[in-house]
């Protein structure tokens, strides 16, 4: 038996409206949430049209003209606007009957391309038990027939499996929201061996180390540590028959471990650096979980990923902005001070779920409104945009002078002395242990 997709009722009307405009096909993304029992689709978003597509449409209709790169880029942009718990669940295509035969092959190719593009950006790894099926939805523009199949994106040789596509009203009306504020103070060294001061690569490496700290953190939900296998809503009243959006909000505290690893002994490392990057601020994080007996581990996992994604995404956005303004071939740099884009949240009509975006200080509300229309095909009112946090910063600090040969020698000498001290410490500890055992033996012998 295949997977079941519960779909927000309004999506049916959205897809029907798209099918009346299709010439000869339209593609898009399915956004929602996976769960062990079933998947939830809360939005469908068409692929933004390209200007040159108008000229291409003059030729005979064919799916070979699908712009795979354009669609995967759209998926990457959309994924930045999704809070924890939401992801790109699959792709859809509305096409004329003449293109129906090639539709599934095109959708299969798109599903794997989108997943490959999204997985490259992640700083976390999917869990072994995680659902890896993604939906391929095909709709005939003439007959309105809907065919839903799934592919396992973890298996390149995966074949299509049938899936149920069921509409449901008020699907997300009573979903659970979890929120937290995470204070960030990350120091990332820039190694002298790094070519051309590769800031973006070094930053990603530093965030990768930080993400492991987040993975190992302790999460207090409403002030309590809960067993991961218990139900998130255990002991809470559930209001049946409620079709109005009513968010059940859980406040979460994140306790990060000060020390990594289980060994109490730490080893110092001396590295020659050309500078450092410092990320500072407090970021607002949010995750949403379905209300069908969700487990605590599902909720914590969704929030962890939002914490990691939101900092990684805004660093990506900052570097993209720097490349646009300063060019990609910047080799020499002085001390730089940048402000990370701030996170804002926007409500989804008829839902308790909010989507997010990032705003630079000089961006006007109109630019963000245009982005929501282009990326998510959703009009947004300026008064509905809620900036959630204060300013976070990136401070890039170069070393004023590159290390000389003398400095290199001093650093090497310091490293050797440090290792010698560590070894001497081990020798002394061993000697003390031996003497203690001899003393104990003589004492009891007498």
TrEMBL record:
<dbReference type="GO" id="GO:0008104">
    <property type="term" value="P:intracellular protein localization"/>
</dbReference>
<keyword id="KW-0812">Transmembrane</keyword>
<feature type="transmembrane region" description="Helical">
    <location>
        <begin position="424"/>
        <end position="444"/>
    </location>
</feature>
<dbReference type="GO" id="GO:0016020">
    <property type="term" value="C:membrane"/>
</dbReference>
<comment type="function">
    <text>May play a role in the trafficking of a subset of G-protein coupled receptors.</text>
</comment>
<protein>
    <recommendedName>
        <fullName>Protein odr-4 homolog</fullName>
    </recommendedName>
</protein>
<dbReference type="Pfam" id="PF14778">
    <property type="entry name" value="ODR4-like"/>
</dbReference>
<dbReference type="GO" id="GO:0012505">
    <property type="term" value="C:endomembrane system"/>
</dbReference>
<keyword id="KW-0472">Membrane</keyword>
<keyword id="KW-1133">Transmembrane helix</keyword>
<comment type="similarity">
    <text>Belongs to the ODR-4 family.</text>
</comment>
<dbReference type="InterPro" id="IPR029454">
    <property type="entry name" value="ODR-4-like"/>
</dbReference>
């Amino acid at each position: 038996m295949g997977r079941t997709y519960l779909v927000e009722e309004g999506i049916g009307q959205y897809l029907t409206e798209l099918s009346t405009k299709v010439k000869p096909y339209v593609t898009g993304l399915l956004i929602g949430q996976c769960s062990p029992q079933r998947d939830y689709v809360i939005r469908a978003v068409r692929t933004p049209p390209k200007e040159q597509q108008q000229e291409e449409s003059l030729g005979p209709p064919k799916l070979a003209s699908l712009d795979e790169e354009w669609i995967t880029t759209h998926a990457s942009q959309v994924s930045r606007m999704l809070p924890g718990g939401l992801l790109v669940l699959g792709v859809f295509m509305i096409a004329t009957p003449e293109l129906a035969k090639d539709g599934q092959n095109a959708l299969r190719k798109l599903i794997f391309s989108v997943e490959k593009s999204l997985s490259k950006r992640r700083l976390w790894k999917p869990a072994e038990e995680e659902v890896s099926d993604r939906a391929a939805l095909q709709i005939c523009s003439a007959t309105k027939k809907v065919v839903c199949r799934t592919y396992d994106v973890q298996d390149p040789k995966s074949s299509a499996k049938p899936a149920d596509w069921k509409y449901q009203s008020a699907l997300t009306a009573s979903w659970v929201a979890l929120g937290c504020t995470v204070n960030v103070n990350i120091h990332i060294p820039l190694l002298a061996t790094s070519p051309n001061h590769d800031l973006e690569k070094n930053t990603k490496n530093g965030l990768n180390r930080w993400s492991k700290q987040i993975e190992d953190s302790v999460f207090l939900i409403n002030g309590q540590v809960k067993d991961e296998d218990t139900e998130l809503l255990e002991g809470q009243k559930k209001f049946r028959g409620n079709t109005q959006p009513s968010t059940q909000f859980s406040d979460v505290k994140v306790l990060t471990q000060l020390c990594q690893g289980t060994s109490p002994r730490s080893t110092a490392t001396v590295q020659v650096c050309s500078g450092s990057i410092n990320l500072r601020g407090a970021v607002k994080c949010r995750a949403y979980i379905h209300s069908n007996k969700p487990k605590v581990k599902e909720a914590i996992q969704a929030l962890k990923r939002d914490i990691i994604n939101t900092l990684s995404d805004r660093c990506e956005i900052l570097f993209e902005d720097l490349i646009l303004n300063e060019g990609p071939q910047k080799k020499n740099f002085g001390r730089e001070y940048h402000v990370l884009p701030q996170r804002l949240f926007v409500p989804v009509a008829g839902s308790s779920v909010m989507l997010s975006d990032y705003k630079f200080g000089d961006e006007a509300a109109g630019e963000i409104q245009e982005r929501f229309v282009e990326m998510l095909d959703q009009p947004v009112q300026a008064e509905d945009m809620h900036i959630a946090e204060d300013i976070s910063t990136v401070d890039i600090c170069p070393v004023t002078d590159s290390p000389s040969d003398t400095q290199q020698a001093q650093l090497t000498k310091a490293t050797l002395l440090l290792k010698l001290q560590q070894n001497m410490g081990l020798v002394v500890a061993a000697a003390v242990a031996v003497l203690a055992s001899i003393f104990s033996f003589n004492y009891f012998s007498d």
